[in-house]
From TrEMBL:
One of its GO terms (biological process) is cellular response to calcium ion. One of its GO terms (molecular function) is calcium-dependent phospholipid binding. Gene3D superfamilies: C2 domain (2.60.40.150). It comes from Oncorhynchus mykiss. Keywords: Calcium, Metal-binding, Repeat. Residues 98-233 form the C2 domain. This is Copine VIII. The lineage of its organism: Eukaryota, Metazoa, Chordata, Craniata, Vertebrata. PROSITE patterns: C2. GO terms for cellular component: plasma membrane. Pfam families: C2, Copine. Belongs to the copine family.
Amino acid sequence: MSSFMNMACIGDFDPFTAAIPATKVELTVSCRNLLDRDTFSKSDPICVLYTQGISNREWREFSRTEVIDNTLNPDFVRKFLLDYFFEERQNLRSMGSRMEKPLIGIPGKKCGTIIVRAEELSNCRESVMLQFCGNKLDKKDFFGKSDPFLVFYRSNEDGSFTICHKTEVVKNTLDPVWQAFKIPVKALCNGDYDRSIKVEVYDWDRDGGHDFIGEFSTRYREMSRGQSQFHTYEYPFNLRTCCQVTLLSCLVDMELTFLDYIKGGYVTNSTVLGLCPGNPSQPTSLHYMSPYQLNAYAMALRAVGEIIQDYDSDKMFPALGFGAKLPPDGRVSHEFALNGNPQNPYCSGIEGVMEAYYQSLKSVRLYGPTHFSPVINHVARYAQSVKDGSQYFILLIISDGVITDMAQTKESIVNAATLPMSIIIVGVGPAEFNEMIELDGDEERISSQGRFAERDIVQFVPFRDYIDRRGNHILSMARLAKEVLAEIPDQFLSYMRTRGIKPGPCPPAYTPTPALHPLFTRRVSRI
């Protein structure tokens, strides 16, 4: 199931007219009475949000919710977070705080209703780690006890409630202890400490018809007292007995941002350029060296490189190629220095990388097959030596989509997911890029030999989706850079958070030394 909401057109970025977002808006999606598409059970719905560009009017996937099994009335926990531009996105404002529309799908059949609720998010940066347990919960299963889980809702101004979290299910017990979970305070109560929070207790059923056990209400201010003492909530399930849910711990922390780490001096970058076969002198080649414009490889390299180099202190980038026959003996290499110096493959800035790329096209013969794993392992060796978070590596791979060592590449990515590094893959040319999409891991976490990647570190983007149809290459490059770098901050933060690495202190503000008066300077020089 997809949501066809055209009230928010945020998919386009024009560097000449871009405005600063006025605020961030959170969209919460629910559906009712969906059409059942499964034969022996109910549907397993998911909601996908598409956004429409301003100039080309093309629809692009923005994000998607989680899948909820066996239900025709889903309340999705995962939200859509949009930048709202007051001057440019007026049609978002027109939908109000709540919108309900019938879904359009199969002709002649009622497909159900979609409900979208929008709320402007506060700037609260607190997060809270909560853990609950239950005691003497109601027995709902005939042959066992209960399989309880908790559902948290924050209240809205109109008295309704919006789902914000679900715990895991604890099987076959009336005295569950749920795992601790971390949630931003703005997701729990939007920064309003006295906003009502409703918690419902359910018994999980395989068919999706979960049995209601009970509910209680609280507030964030009340829960925050749990930092020093337990807090027990009681609710009756019959005239004689009460169920109990106890808040075991409440740990408040400040949400750190990507900018906090940048200010502390973090992030370094490693740039790798992949070379696919082709004759640079032929106009049909992706490496064609036109005297009038950049080729697709050069545009992708410059678009991404000019941004990531600003987060590097020395702006020295190791630039590697793969898939070529090297002089003088024609040896095939899947990991060679673009500047021709294997002992020192570093280039000065993106201009240095561009120059090395052009020189390599003249000195090597591009040749398949194309292996990704050697260059991934190359950067991983650097990242392995600085796992304290003082440096973070960004690997940029530009290729035409043909991967001949897919199994080894998956294994390399799974191993690299434990290291301080991210991988950006830009696909150029007309290929289908099915293998690249598989590596991305947005829909399904990548795995190798039964091991799943610890976190998602790969972002894949096909360049052709962001090329301006009017031939504006600057706009095409800006769109590409915006898309490929969108996930880097979250990937960076996921590594730092799981390792408990805090940002370093900000350097002292620069204070210029007052210039000496010329007369005073000359007088000193005579002494």
